[in-house]
Fold SpoVT-AbrB domain-containing protein.
Amino acid sequence: MMHVATISSKRQLTIPSAIFSQLGFKEGEKVLISEEAGAMRVVSSLSLIEKLAGSVKIPTRFKGLSIDQMISRAKEEYFQAKYKKQPK
């Protein structure tokens, strides 16, 4: 079934609720948008993560952690290294 949507002056597109529900999207979820043969394709960014699962080696220090825990720890390590106090 085809649906009509309007692009706002801010270039925002509202996904019709029937399609939104059918695809299992959630409010605030990130999506990937690509152009294929003149058509726009929108997919959940989580689907990319699921596709890559198993193909990316997990560092030993992250083994046994959930994705959220890995992200939190990686951010913490990154910012600690980035803002490490310089000796005077």
Notes: The beta strands are 31-36, 39-44. The mean pLDDT is 87. Helices lie at 17-22, 45-52, 67-82.
